């Protein structure tokens, strides 16, 4: 027996699709702008730049793939006859969104780890691994994730089931083979538990390392600046503020810390509903708690879209280089600080 009634189920979806619609449209627009800015900045100008560009591209694709979910939901409310078509579209796009969202996760982990290493060993970061090897590792992880999702989805089939309520047939996603539960469990363990938990721990650890190291560096530079400051400075001379000593590296690390911590917050919130799989029976596409699964997935979609849509505001606030290129797109020298 389902833990959700039909009325509660529909109410939850109606509430959750309102912010989802806003975040999806905003995510498409803002990540499109991010892609243009990073291209103008030079995608190959640094390992962080290409990673931010790739993360914006995957976030853009994840938002685009979520758009049919929103359109189909409201289309069904207006005209119930489009249910079957919308069900097919939603089924085709849901796994693609999972894949692109997981790719975004890998890029976020890469950015946090790379910056943490750069802060701890700034003179040796380029000797550990070349850029092409870093890209190869991330792409390999993406391929493994894709295969994990494809393996499970390949064991499913779309079934047309007669319905007296609809006076016709309805589309359902059903298990096709005896191995479907095994692939479902494997996909859940690998992608939802192992990968996500490792990502959470890695991002949190990297953020702590970056914040601790940067605070120690800034305190040391502050003490050096204070010690080296003359007791009676010459007239007209200005003491050099310690914040200027940190310059580009501190700005970049601060941007990475904020972006990754924001992603970590969204990931933790979206990961908590996923844990219901461990305690609730029948939470699957063809299980007795299918309605609960729909609500859980919509919550995840909301959080994924939230992260994708708000990145641009962190870039504008924290990165002077991004801010300059962004405002130059609108031919506003005043906003660029020129």
Can you characterise this structure?
This protein is mainly alpha-helical and 338 residues long. A two-stranded antiparallel ribbon has the order 1-2. The protein has helices spanning 6-41, 47-78, 83-120, 125-128, 131-153, 180-228, 243-274, 276-279, 290-318, 320-328, 333-336, and strands spanning 156-163, 168-175. A hairpin with a 4-residue loop joins strand 1 and strand 2 (168-175). The protein has one domain (6-155, 190-225, 245-336): Rhodopsin 7-helix transmembrane proteins (Rhopdopsin 7-helix transmembrane proteins, Up-down Bundle). Helix content is 77%, strand content 5%.
Helix-strand string: HHHHHEEHHHHHH
Strand content: under 5%
CATH topology name, in short, is Rhopdopsin 7-helix transmembrane proteins
Judging from the principal axes of the Cα atoms, what is the shape?
elongated
Q: Into how many domains do the coordinates divide?
A: 1
Number of E-state strands: 2
Secondary structure class reads mainly alpha
CATH architecture call:
Up-down Bundle
Low-confidence stretches: 235-246
In CATH terms, the superfamily is: Rhodopsin 7-helix transmembrane proteins
Side by side, the strands of the main sheet go 1-2
Mean pLDDT over the residues: 77
Rg: 24 Å
CATH class: Mainly Alpha
Q: First CA to last CA: what distance?
A: 65 Å
What count of helical segments does DSSP give?
11
**Approximate helicity band:** over 70%
Subcellular location: Membrane
Keywords: Membrane, Transmembrane, Transmembrane helix
Biased composition (Basic residues): 229-238
InterPro entries: GPCR-Ligand_Int, GPCR_Rhodpsn_7TM
């Amino acid at each position: 027996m389902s833990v959700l009634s039909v009325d509660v189920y529909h109410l939850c979806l109606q509430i959750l699709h309102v912010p989802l619609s806003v975040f999806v449209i905003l995510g498409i627009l803002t990540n499109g702008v991010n892609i243009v800015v990073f291209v103008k900045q030079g995608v190959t100008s640094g390992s962080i730049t290409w990673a931010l560009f790739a993360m914006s591209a995957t976030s853009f694709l994840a938002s685009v793939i979520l758009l049919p979910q929103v359109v189909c939901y409201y289309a069904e409310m207006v005209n119930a006859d489009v249910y079957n078509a919308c069900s097919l579209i939603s089924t085709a796009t849901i796994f693609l969104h999972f894949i692109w969202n997981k790719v975004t996760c890998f890029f976020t982990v890469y950015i946090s780890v790379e910056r943490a290493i750069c802060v701890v060993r700034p003179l040796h970061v380029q000797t550990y691994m070349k850029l092409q090897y870093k890209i190869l590792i991330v792409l390999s992880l993406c391929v493994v994730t894709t295969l994990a999702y494809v393996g499970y989805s390949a064991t499913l089939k779309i079934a047309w089931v007669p319905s007296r309520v609809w006076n016709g047939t309805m589309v359902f996603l059903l298990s096709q083979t005896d191995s479907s539960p095994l692939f479902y469990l494997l996909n859940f363990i690998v992608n939802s538990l192992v990968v996500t938990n490792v990502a959470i721990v890695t991002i949190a650890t990297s953020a702590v390392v970056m914040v601790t190291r940067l605070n120690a560096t800034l305190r040391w530079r502050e003490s050096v600046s204070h010690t080296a400051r003359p007791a009676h400075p010459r007239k007209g001379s200005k003491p050099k503020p310690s914040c200027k000593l940190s310059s580009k590296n501190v700005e970049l690390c601060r941007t990475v810390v904020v972006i990754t911590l924001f992603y970590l917050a969204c990931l933790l919130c979206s990961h908590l509903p996923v844990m219901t799989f461990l305690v609730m029976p029948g939470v699957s596409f063809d299980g007795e708690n299918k309605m609960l699964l729909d609500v859980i997935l919509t919550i995840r979609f909301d959080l994924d879209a939230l992260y994708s849509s708000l990145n641009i505001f962190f870039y504008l606030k924290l990165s002077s280089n991004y801010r300059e290129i962004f405002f130059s797109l609108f031919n506003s020298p005043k906003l660029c600080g020129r």
